[in-house]
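Weekly sync, protein design subgroup
Attendees: M.S., D.O., the rotation student, P.L. (late)

Item 1: inverse folding check
M.S. brought a backbone from last month's batch and wanted to see whether the design step gives back something sensible before we order anything. D.O. pointed out we never logged the input encoding, so this time it goes straight into the notes. Structure tokens as presented (557 positions):
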């Protein structure tokens, strides 16, 4: 399939500013990428005032262990912990719904812009509802246990977190609303989530249908996948013209040499990148792979969109050498290309690739041993509450998978990252940090539907160019049902990436192009079907509905 980049995505890339060297951690270890890496901090760039000053955090005491009959959580706990939340009642009208956004695998504070001006604010204003951000257990300040040891992480499962959300919906009394019953099912609750949280709210609605009237799953990864080589399919299919093929070719050169096994040739390859002191070949391969993964951090709002992907692709498609210092490597580059099975026609691209890696990776390690920068994590045993790096990897290792490999790519297709990056290497954290040697129990998630997830009043929304689309019901290559009011479906066009419908801008920031038409269309679509869902709720829960329910139970009117 010809590489393409559609609509607004191309505009973003053309307008993106230059990037200076950074100390990014991408590629420094056996990476387990978070689903939402790179966006949370950026969400605050444009805020005036900062939403953290507008919305104070509150907590609700919630059971640590909801499942005392499940041996997975032995030894069981009778304790409670404080689950953090925020709410906004500026649009609330009597009888309005609760719009709750699941914060997912990050601090809930990072989701506050969605309460201030994003999808929660949009839905609350349209429905007279109250907006809520609910933090996920263990993340942010919703501490469950005194440390993050493997034993104490046993309560970090999606099932326990969904039970928290159900408990919250049944028991919450919002400050200032002590005289109003806003709990479920007395009040309609609509759940929204993006990415992991998108899958979370979809399954939540299915498991707790009496509490959650509807759910909106945006970029929701309802399919847990162990070998998630297809993460890079979006970049292969939707990158700017020429970017993916160029990446495939330079990766092919690298793999031909690394897999060839000649130590002198391998050393020559590492040297030309300035990474001659990286001991393990797979660590070297990981260090140079980061650029193509930047697609996930492209957003329609320039204030929060990362320019890294634009820089990378502009490097890989340039027809002239961008980094003058790499000209001194001309003969070495041509030798490496020959060793890798390519001729001199790739020399300019390869030099620019070397320059990009030097700018974004090598320069950040000058003055330090390269293995200390690129040789993998060394503090696996640290497990105090500041070691938040343990949280999402634990979920990955136990149930969700998503190891983004190059080895899993079919042999008929050139990968975008090295085939040395395989399941065994990707799961190093599982072994070293958690003493887990098997593969994740993805059946625990996929039993709810996986790629075929479907349930009444669960909306499935995805971006056409989202790397995580390949773990959703809108996976490229699958057939899916047409959209209905009961089960709305939409693929956001215009080069949309990761849950682009979730964030918003203030009305005085709106222009003819911001938000772009595909995003406006998606947000309008969401408002439309949520209003229809709420009409259904009123019909079922109004006076007539109450009489019908009593009659069904054989009770007097």
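Designed sequence read out in the meeting:
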């Amino acid at each position: 399939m010809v590489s393409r980049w559609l609509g607004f995505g191309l505009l973003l890339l053309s307008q993106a500013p230059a990037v200076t060297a950074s100390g990014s951690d991408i590629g420094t270890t056996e990476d387990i990428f978070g689903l939402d890496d790179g966006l949370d901090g950026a969400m605050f760039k444009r805020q005036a005032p900062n939403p953290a000053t507008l919305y104070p955090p509150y907590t609700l005491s919630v059971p640590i262990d909801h499942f005392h009959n499940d041996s997975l959580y032995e030894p069981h706990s009778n304790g409670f912990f404080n689950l953090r939340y925020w709410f906004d009642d500026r649009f609330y009208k009597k009888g309005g719904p609760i719009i709750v956004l699941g914060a997912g695998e990050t601090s809930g504070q990072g989701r506050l812009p969605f309460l201030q001006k994003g999808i929660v604010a949009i839905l609350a204003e349209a429905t007279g509802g109250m907006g809520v951000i609910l933090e996920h257990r263990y993340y942010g300040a919703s501490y469950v246990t005194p440390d993050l040891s493997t034993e104490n992480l046993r309560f970090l499962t999606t099932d326990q977190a969904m039970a928290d959300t159900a408990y919250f919906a049944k028991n919450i009394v919002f400050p200032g609303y002590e005289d109003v019953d806003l709990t479920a099912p007395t009040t309609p609750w609509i759940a929204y989530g993006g990415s992991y949280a998108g899958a979370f709210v979809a399954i939540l609605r299915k498991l707790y249908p009496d509490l959650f009237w509807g759910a909106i799953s945006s970029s929701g990864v309802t399919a847990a996948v162990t070998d998630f080589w297809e993460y890079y399919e979006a970049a292969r299919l939707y990158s700017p013209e020429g970017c993916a093929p160029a990446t495939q070719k330079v990766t092919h050169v690298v793999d031909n040499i690394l897999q060839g096994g000649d130590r002198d040739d391998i050393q020559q390859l590492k040297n030309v990148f300035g990474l001659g002191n990286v001991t393990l070949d797979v660590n070297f391969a990981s260090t140079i792979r980061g650029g193509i993964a930047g697609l996930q951090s492209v957003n329609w709002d320039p204030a929060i969109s990362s320019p890294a992907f634009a820089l990378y692709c502009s490097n890989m498609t340039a027809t002239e050498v961008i980094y003058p210092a790499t000209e001194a490597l001309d003969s070495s580059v041509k030798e490496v290309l020959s060793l890798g099975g390519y001729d001199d026609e790739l020399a300019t691209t390869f030099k620019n690739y070397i320059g990009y890696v030097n700018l974004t990776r090598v320069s950040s390690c000058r003055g330090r041993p390269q293995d200390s920068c690129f040789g993998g994590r060394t503090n696996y045993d640290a497990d105090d509450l500041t070691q938040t790096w343990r949280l999402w990897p634990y979920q990955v290792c136990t149930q969700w998978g998503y190891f983004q490999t190059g080895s899993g790519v079919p042999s008929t297709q050139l990968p975008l990252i090295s085939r040395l990056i395989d399941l065994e290497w990707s799961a190093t954290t599982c072994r070293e940090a958690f003493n887990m040697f098997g593969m994740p129990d993805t059946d625990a998630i996929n039993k709810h539907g996986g790629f075929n997830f479907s349930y009444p009043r669960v909306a499935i929304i995805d971006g056409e160019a989202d790397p995580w689309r390949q773990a959703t019901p809108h996976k490229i290559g699958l057939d899916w049902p047409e959209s209905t009011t009961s089960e709305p479906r939409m693929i956001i066009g215009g080069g949309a990436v990761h849950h682009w419908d979730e964030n918003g801008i203030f009305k005085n920031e709106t222009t003819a192009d911001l938000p772009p038409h595909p995003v406006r269309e998606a947000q309008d679509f969401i408002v439309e079907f949520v209003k229809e869902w709420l009409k259904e709720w009123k019909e079922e829960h109004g006076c007539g509905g109450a009489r019908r329910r009593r009659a069904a139970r054989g009770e007097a009117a």
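Discussion: Residues 1-31, 547-553 have pLDDT under 50 and may be disordered. The radius of gyration is 25 Å.
Action: P.L. to compare against the previous round before Friday.
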